[in-house]
Description:
By secondary structure, the protein is mainly beta.
Amino acid sequence: ARLQAMERVPAVDNDGFALAIPFSVIAEERVIPFTLGDLEAVAFHKGGAASALDNFWIPDGRDVGSTNVFIPSIDGQPLTFAATYSGFMDIETGSTWTILGRAVSGPLEGTHLAQVPHGNHFWFAWAAFKPDTVIYTGQP
Length: 140
């Protein structure tokens, strides 16, 4: 009852701590840094992926976008991210990043962020197995 059953969520489980971020929230904020137990991570959202469930023709489905979750550092250097028109940028070096965690321009071009194991689920499916999941509700 904490979210609508069919709300999509990127969800992360780390040593017994679980976090779900509603797509409705991450689509608006686009970059969400978080701590889960001893894990420092950042979640990205980028529009442009059509839902396969909303229409007979997938390209006509509504835009739900896609998400990914990463460790926000390269070679021990912590990075802070912001959304840009075409992707993401780290504040520290000004490098531009893709939804796949690859730097495509700037001083870190060619490097990749380490991906955090996660899944994109419907809330009802995740909550059935992880009912104590913390739900990210957005920045105050």
